[in-house]
Amino acid sequence: MKASVVTIEPGGHFCSDCAVRDFAVCASLDPAELREFEHLGRRVHFDGGETVFSEEDITTSFYNLLEGVMRLYKLLPDGRRQIVGFALPGDFLGMNISGRHNFSADAIGTVTVCQFAKAPFGRFIEDRPHLLRRINELAIRELSQARDHMVLLGRRSADEKVATFLLGWRERLVSLKGSSDTVPLPMSRQDIADYLGLTIETVSRTFTKLERHGVIEIIHGGVSLLDPAKVEALAAA
Amino acid sequence: MKASVVTIEPGGHFCSDCAVRDFAVCASLDPAELREFEHLGRRVHFDGGETVFSEEDITTSFYNLLEGVMRLYKLLPDGRRQIVGFALPGDFLGMNISGRHNFSADAIGTVTVCQFAKAPFGRFIEDRPHLLRRINELAIRELSQARDHMVLLGRRSADEKVATFLLGWRERLVSLKGSSDTVPLPMSRQDIADYLGLTIETVSRTFTKLERHGVIEIIHGGVSLLDPAKVEALAAA
DNA sequence: TCCCATTTTTGATCCCGATCAATGACGTCG
DNA sequence: CGACGTCATTGATCGGGATCAAAAATGGGA
User: What is the pLDDT of residues A105-152, one digit of tens each?
Assistant: First the structure.
């Protein structure tokens, strides 16, 4: 994990043709507000493996993910890692009440974020309840996902975990890029293991087992769901 | 789990002398608003074991817990249960975006809630951004707790889980009732197991082991922390 | 192209926590 | 008070997933 070397894009970007305009926080803003909002955020790039912010860092910015995938995780003092989620375009990161981030966030592959300084963003929200409502909506959705993930971590077997992960990840990609039985997996096996509360070996073995049974095909950078119904049956169990 | 037979208190309750006035959602309301707010909620009692609302039920009310403890949980189709949290006085329940509750909630022992019909409550929030901000704050705090719990479920050993649970539960009680090394545990061993992603036997054995080592004393309806530092050491590991 | 570092897969073995089973401790009701 | 139902504890055994170890695949970079 190297130091976070960011590159700042020159100007010339407009919220109105932003890729996540319609489903990120900014979806709640009207065209006039959007022009004002535009001045608050700036696009920043991160390379794969770079850390965007760390747990316990004082929060100075919020982030709107525009492109790429991020892993969000917490570490125990002895180095054990739990990935609490993967962020995709449209996800809004950095909200907290302690003034510090409560998890770390790394880029997986190249990432583009829209970065907002905390204070100006806070002032902008102040008299725009619809934006606050939007943020609240996103928080509540995340909370629901977090609870689902607790069930997975606490009560599901390795097979169920992997099957549930594949379906859930596919579902999220579907809503971004449309339906497909080919599921790209930009994250490493170790990332998947740390997300599912397993070891890398168990994840690898489970993938291999699913492939042997003709349920999936392991392809470069992802898997292909040969028998989606079977995957769903495994996840439902 | 019997049918939820509720008893509705007669009138005569005032938000101004409500026990949770200062730290629940209503903490964000000024005295004038509070008088209006008063008409929206009504106090309802539940006996131990009664279900206040169920996962997948259409949300018709929100709840502000006034007295008692609740278990919040999700069930898998085959009956496995994951408790996603315990609610204490001041906790606000029922927010969701799907229009359905995404977990079930039972009373553990006798419980009093302040129940709000969804529509009037929604209307009341509409032009009161400070209340919305308060709700958002509570959601974000819960999200942070949810992430902490994911780390526990995915990456901690049984001993660590139990020690972390005891400390976390004590901490929550401290902020309600003040400090004490005696930790009341109103929930059953099965509840604790389903919260920690363990079996009842493992929870029981871990308690016994901690007692044998002189770390805790198991008392009627709870435990006493004989060596809090040792418990913290176990939880930190 | 080959080399070397990293990641993934596969194999062998172990152990923590689950499961199966029985006993003990309460509380409640007749 | 004693019988019974529920919950908690304890014991014996099992097994899923972890750990330890090595081989295979992948991917840059010179």
Answer: 999 999 999 999 999 999 999 989 999 999 999 999 999 999 999 999
CA A201 to C1' D21, whole Å: 12
Residue numbers in B near A151 (CB within 8 A)? 74, 76, 82, 84
What DSSP string runs through B97-164? SSSB-SSEEEEEEEEEEEEEEHHHHHHHHHT-HHHHHHHHHHHHHHHHHHHHHHHHHHH--HHHHHHH
Q: Are B114 and B14 in contact (CB under 8 A)?
A: no
User: Which residue pairs from A124-132 have beta carbons closer than 8 angstroms and sit at least 24 positions apart in sequence?
Assistant: A124/A36, A124/A37, A124/A40, A128/A29, A128/A33, A129/B129, A129/B132, A130/A28, A130/A29, A131/A25, A131/A28, A131/A29, A132/B129, A132/B132, A132/B133, A132/B136
Helix or strand or coil: residue B216? strand
pLDDT tens, residue by residue, B70-111: 999 999 999 999 999 999 999 999 999 999 999 999 999 999
Query: Once rounded to an integer, what is the mean pLDDT over residues B14-40?
Result: 91
Distance B48 CA to D1 C1' (A): 28
H helix or E strand, kind and range, residue A37:
helix A31-37
Q: Closest Cα of chain A to B64: distance in Å?
A: 17
* A139:B141 CB<8 A: no
> Using the beta-carbon criterion (under 8 Å), do A76 and B151 form an inter-chain contact?
yes
Find residue B8's DSSP bridge partners.
B44
Beta strands in chain A (DSSP E): 7-8, 41-46, 51-53, 61-75, 81-87, 92-93, 104-117, 182-184, 216-219, 222-225
Per-residue model confidence (pLDDT) at position B14: 84
Residue numbers of B between 141 and 160 with CB closer than 8 Å to A: 141-144, 146-151, 153-156
| A182 CB closer than 7 A to any strand D atom | no
| Short-list B6, B86, B70, B94, CA closest to B43 | B6
Polymer length of chain A: 237
Nearest by CB: B74 against A95, A132, A147: A147
Q: Reply yes or no on whether the pLDDT at B13 is more than 80.
A: no
DSSP classification of residue A16: G
Torsion angles phi and psi, residue A95, rounded to 5 = -65, 135
pTM: 0.95
B27 touches chain A (CB under 8 A): no
Tell me phi and psi for residue B67, to 5 degrees. -145, 145
Residues in contact with B229: Cβ distance below 8 Å, sequence separation at least 6, in sequence order: none
